[in-house]
Amino acid sequence: MGDVILLMEILVLGILVIGFLALLITRGDQHLVKPMATPLPTLPPVLLPEAQDISAQDIQDIRFAVGLRGYRTDQVDQVLERLTSAIEVRDQQIAELRQNAKYSQQHEESP
Fold first, then answer.
1. Rounded to 5 degrees, what angle do the CA atoms 101, 59, 47 make?
2. How far separated are the first and last CA of the chain, in Å rounded?
3. Domain shared by 45 and 26, yes or no
4. What pLDDT sits at residue 99?
5. Which of 32, 53, 60, 91 would be 27's cystine partner, CB 3.0–4.6 Å?
6. How far apart are CA 97 and CA 95, in angstroms?
7. What pLDDT digit, counting tens, does each position of 97-109 carry?
Protein backbone atom coordinates (compact mmCIF):
# COMPACT_ATOMS: atom_id res chain seq x y z
CA MET A 1 0.00 0.00 0.00
CA GLY A 2 2.89 2.36 0.84
CA ASP A 3 4.41 1.78 -2.62
CA VAL A 4 1.17 2.81 -4.32
CA ILE A 5 1.02 6.07 -2.34
CA LEU A 6 4.67 6.83 -3.14
CA LEU A 7 4.03 6.17 -6.83
CA MET A 8 0.98 8.47 -6.78
CA GLU A 9 3.01 11.23 -5.08
CA ILE A 10 5.77 10.94 -7.69
CA LEU A 11 3.19 11.02 -10.48
CA VAL A 12 1.45 14.13 -9.09
CA LEU A 13 4.80 15.86 -8.53
CA GLY A 14 5.86 15.07 -12.11
CA ILE A 15 2.61 16.48 -13.49
CA LEU A 16 3.07 19.66 -11.44
CA VAL A 17 6.65 20.14 -12.64
CA ILE A 18 5.68 19.59 -16.29
CA GLY A 19 2.76 21.99 -15.94
CA PHE A 20 4.98 24.65 -14.36
CA LEU A 21 7.56 24.32 -17.14
CA ALA A 22 4.85 24.51 -19.80
CA LEU A 23 3.50 27.64 -18.16
CA LEU A 24 6.93 29.25 -18.11
CA ILE A 25 7.59 28.42 -21.75
CA THR A 26 4.24 29.68 -23.04
CA ARG A 27 4.28 32.80 -20.87
CA GLY A 28 7.77 33.61 -22.13
CA ASP A 29 6.20 34.64 -25.43
CA GLN A 30 4.14 37.23 -23.56
CA HIS A 31 7.28 38.72 -21.97
CA LEU A 32 6.25 37.67 -18.46
CA VAL A 33 9.51 35.78 -18.25
CA LYS A 34 12.84 36.70 -19.81
CA PRO A 35 13.25 34.96 -23.16
CA MET A 36 15.65 32.03 -23.21
CA ALA A 37 17.40 32.96 -26.45
CA THR A 38 19.22 36.12 -25.36
CA PRO A 39 22.45 36.65 -27.26
CA LEU A 40 25.57 35.77 -25.36
CA PRO A 41 28.27 38.46 -25.29
CA THR A 42 30.94 35.75 -25.48
CA LEU A 43 29.87 34.65 -28.97
CA PRO A 44 31.74 36.26 -31.87
CA PRO A 45 29.65 38.46 -34.15
CA VAL A 46 28.77 37.34 -37.66
CA LEU A 47 31.13 39.46 -39.71
CA LEU A 48 30.58 40.54 -43.28
CA PRO A 49 32.55 42.98 -45.39
CA GLU A 50 31.06 46.32 -46.40
CA ALA A 51 27.99 46.04 -48.63
CA GLN A 52 29.83 46.85 -51.87
CA ASP A 53 32.51 44.24 -51.10
CA ILE A 54 30.28 41.27 -50.27
CA SER A 55 30.90 38.25 -52.46
CA ALA A 56 29.02 35.01 -52.87
CA GLN A 57 31.82 33.25 -50.98
CA ASP A 58 31.29 35.57 -47.99
CA ILE A 59 27.68 34.41 -47.79
CA GLN A 60 28.63 30.76 -48.16
CA ASP A 61 31.12 31.12 -45.30
CA ILE A 62 28.54 32.53 -42.83
CA ARG A 63 27.97 30.33 -39.79
CA PHE A 64 25.45 31.15 -37.08
CA ALA A 65 25.56 30.01 -33.48
CA VAL A 66 22.55 27.96 -32.40
CA GLY A 67 20.85 29.15 -29.23
CA LEU A 68 18.67 27.24 -26.82
CA ARG A 69 15.59 27.76 -28.95
CA GLY A 70 17.69 27.65 -32.10
CA TYR A 71 16.47 28.51 -35.56
CA ARG A 72 15.12 26.66 -38.58
CA THR A 73 18.35 25.73 -40.28
CA ASP A 74 16.57 24.71 -43.46
CA GLN A 75 15.05 28.20 -43.80
CA VAL A 76 18.35 29.95 -43.07
CA ASP A 77 20.18 27.70 -45.54
CA GLN A 78 17.54 28.39 -48.20
CA VAL A 79 17.88 32.16 -47.74
CA LEU A 80 21.67 31.96 -47.82
CA GLU A 81 21.54 29.92 -51.05
CA ARG A 82 19.26 32.52 -52.66
CA LEU A 83 21.54 35.35 -51.52
CA THR A 84 24.58 33.53 -52.85
CA SER A 85 22.94 33.10 -56.26
CA ALA A 86 21.84 36.73 -56.35
CA ILE A 87 25.35 37.94 -55.49
CA GLU A 88 26.90 35.69 -58.15
CA VAL A 89 24.51 37.08 -60.78
CA ARG A 90 25.22 40.65 -59.60
CA ASP A 91 28.98 40.12 -59.77
CA GLN A 92 28.71 38.62 -63.25
CA GLN A 93 26.59 41.55 -64.48
CA ILE A 94 29.02 44.07 -63.01
CA ALA A 95 31.95 42.32 -64.70
CA GLU A 96 30.12 42.33 -68.06
CA LEU A 97 29.19 46.02 -67.71
CA ARG A 98 32.76 46.94 -66.86
CA GLN A 99 34.01 44.97 -69.85
CA ASN A 100 31.47 46.68 -72.13
CA ALA A 101 32.39 50.10 -70.75
CA LYS A 102 36.08 49.42 -71.30
CA TYR A 103 35.37 48.20 -74.86
CA SER A 104 33.26 51.29 -75.63
CA GLN A 105 35.86 53.61 -74.19
CA GLN A 106 38.64 52.02 -76.27
CA HIS A 107 36.60 52.37 -79.50
CA GLU A 108 35.70 55.98 -78.77
CA GLU A 109 39.36 56.90 -78.24
CA SER A 110 40.65 55.24 -81.43
CA PRO A 111 39.60 57.01 -84.69
1. 110
2. 110
3. no
4. 93
5. 32
6. 6
7. 999 998 888 877 7
Q: Are residues 103 and 59 in the same domain?
A: yes
Q: What is the pLDDT of residue 111?
A: 61
Using an 8 Å Cβ cutoff, are 67 and 37 in contact? yes
Kindly report, residue by residue over 24-50, the tens digit of the pLDDT. 676 655 555 455 555 555 656 666 677
**63 with 28, same domain?**
no
Q: Give the model confidence (pLDDT) of 63-86 as tens digits.
A: 777 766 777 777 788 888 888 888
Please tell me whether residues 106 and 59 are part of one structural domain.
yes
Residues 25 and 43 reside in one and the same domain: no
CB 19, CB 51: distance < 8 Å? no
Q: Which domain holds residue 78?
A: 39-111
CB 24 within 8 A of CB 33: yes
Look up the pTM and report it. 0.47
